[in-house]
Amino acid sequence: MDVDALQRTESAFAVSNGHIGLRGTLEEAEPRGLPGTYLNGFYEQHDLPYAETGYGYPEEGQTVVNVTDGKVIRLLVEDEPLDMRYGQATDHDRVLDFRKGTLARDTVWSSPTGRRVRVKTERLVSFTQRAVAAIRYEVEPLDDELQLVVQSDLLANEPVESDTRDPRVAAALESPLIGEYHHAEEYHAVLVHQTRKSGLRMAAAMDHKIDVSDGVRTHIEAEEDLARLTIAVDVPKGGRLRITKFLAYGWSAQRSVPAVRAQVEAALAGARQTGWKGLLAEQKEFLDDFWQTSDIEIDGDPELQQAVRFSLFHLLQAGARGETRALAGKGLTGPGYDGHAFWDTETFVLPVLTYSMPDAARDALRWRHSTLDKARERATQLGLRGAAFPWRSINGAECSAYWPAGTAAFHVSADISDAVVRYLNATGDDEFMRTCGAELLLETARMWLSLGHFDRRGRFRIDGVTGPDEYSAVADNNVYTNLMARRNLFYAAEIVGQHDDVARRFEVGEDEVALWRKAADAMLVPYDEELGVHPQSEGFLEHDEWDFEATDPDFYPLLLNFPYFDLYRKQVVKQADLVLALHLCGDSFTPEEKARDFAYYEARTVRDSSLSAGTQAVVAAEVGHLELAYDYLAEAALTDLHDVHNNVRNGLHLASLAGAWQGTVAGFGGLRDHGGRLTFAPRLPPQLRRIAFRLTFRGTRFQVEIDSEGATYHVITGEPLELAHHGETFTVNSERVRLPIPAVDPGPAPVQPQGRAPVRRRPKGA
């Protein structure tokens, strides 16, 4: 076993349901890379230090807490602890099963004195019982009768190391949990803790079922930060010790110690009643439905096929049972970025969920709505009307220290409104529109009207903002921001125009709506006639070029090796910005403009962010550079499996995982949803024989299947749909509709900055 690889595999092998997240640490707890057990929304506060403070600077940060670890099951074989650094593991296999929803392990280990055992484990976090996780642990002596001792723990305040030099990793928290209650009896224990500053209270409980021959001895104990069940038994050769460990977690900002204790004990009772086999059956049934709705099939590249399913599975784990909590940039796979949610959620992850698990998309948007009061407070603090949503947060308040590339990223509010409109168009969910969606659209529209202004020529300008590219900051009229704001204003006006009761409820008058429409119609979208391209923001095309030839390859990402002020004044792009506008606001550009813009920004984009490759795959496919799109798709899909950015130990990159879906469905499938109408422009790269994917729209589940000559559409369940294929409108039902794929001439291949081209993809095992 490669002990050093644990830092990466613990993230890849994480199991979660959106409420509970367990990193893929070994049951023995050591060796390990980074321990991690997380509850969505459970955090600790800490001060944000400034050398010199300023008005409006956030004062408190929020960091996800590694809560009480229930994964720990230590084994002693004739008093020798099973530790993969000692003795010898002659066999060791771990499998994250996308169909069963479990992490399984099979290890044959010889102790330093030669005693051999087979250890088989399987763990799950339940999709159906939100507060429950469970572990099946089996030990079999392989040569002789052995005395086995198992210690099953609940362990709080594990020490966690943090690389404080890297702003992408979590703040170091030392013993963030204060013990409030502990109790143990028979095979059952519960610990209750509260955070020191944020005042959140959580409970963790465990119970056990032990299957073994006679002669077992047990002892249970509990103290403030540790509850331990010790099991001792002599097991003959051919015999087996089997332990099922049931875990339950819960937290609250308001409930008392007895209440959170009762919550987890009730969840444990339900898990015991269901039993291990019942939990497995529920898990598989849930996943069977998910894969029937959401699977993507890729013929011609087995590794890419597996990577795309890996991506879909982890997106499901992040969003399935989040239920009005944030979807963090790392999900619940690690502490990277302190467990914060960014605009990644709405722009990259929610399109996947909207067309595969719309209920999960709705719940994520409900979380945003639940934080509206904090967004209004932030807008007021900034001298604005409406709602200004935070750059990064756990509870809805801005918790990023002042940083131009984040603090001025107002586009997050338009990204949220865009996700609202996409969800409403895809589902027709009138209840959500009235309870959450309309208010989100109206309050963000109010923010844009107060942030921007009409200039002397009557154009609506939005100055002093940061777009998606964090290597440009506080610029005027960022094209992506302005186009997304225009859409935000337009749809807010449409909602009010269609629903008088909504207008009355939120006190929206005709004059306000008229201003929204006027601002949308007059929105300034800069364009350079001489170069024939759109500047990322006003003045961007006048900046000096970055000297890529003189940049050492080891100096990427640039943010860790060059001052931001130098990045801000050069034509160097961290991640897709104008190119993201070509995708999401593609109805605002001509095909010729898209081709020229894409080529121009390809030569200046260094992809120092995992958000970028998926978007570049989408637009490369649209303008006809299919092999380049294939390379970018592979980069997005394999970002975590290949640890492209060398930081997977801190958690997976949800936006890049979503980029695998985007690159496949929106890239090679050509899916666009402008105006609520689904259109497709499929094309296949020469390396692949076939792609098939499934989507859900307005309650109808349908499939798109693409090969080198054409595309086939058919409805799996539900009513017929009107779609478009390369501009041709057609109706799809249960009968298969086969349509040809027109040829495309992409022109010369674009170039990338020296050393920053994607790796040329060569399928393995095809």
Describe it for me?
- The structure is a single chain.
- By secondary structure, the chain is of the alpha+beta class.
- It folds into 2 domains: 3-293, Beta-galactosidase, Chain A, domain 5 (Distorted Sandwich); 295-739, Alpha/alpha barrel (Glycosyltransferase), CATH 1.50.10.10.
- Helices cover 31% and strands 24% of the residues.
- The strands form 8 sheets. Strands 8-9-10-11-18-15-14-13 form an 8-stranded antiparallel sheet.
- α13 (564-568) links the parallel β22 (544-545) and β23.
- The protein starts with 5 loop residues before the first helix and ends in a 26-residue tail after the last strand.
Strand content: 15-25%
- Extract low-pLDDT stretches: none
Going across the biggest sheet, name each strand in turn. 8-9-10-11-18-15-14-13
Instruction: List how many beta strands DSSP finds.
Output: 30
Oligomer: single chain
GO molecular function: carbohydrate binding; glycosyltransferase activity; hydrolase activity, hydrolyzing O-glycosyl compounds
Pfam families: Glyco_hydro_65C (PF03633), Glyco_hydro_65m (PF03632), Glyco_hydro_65N (PF03636)
InterPro entries: 6-hairpin_glycosidase_sf (IPR008928), 6hp_glycosidase-like_sf (IPR012341), Gal_mutarotase_sf_dom (IPR011013), GH65_N (IPR037018), Glyco_hydro_65_C (IPR005194), Glyco_hydro_65_M (IPR005195), Glyco_hydro_65_N (IPR005196), Malt_Pase/Glycosyl_Hdrlase (IPR017045)
Binding site for substrate: 343-344, 574-575
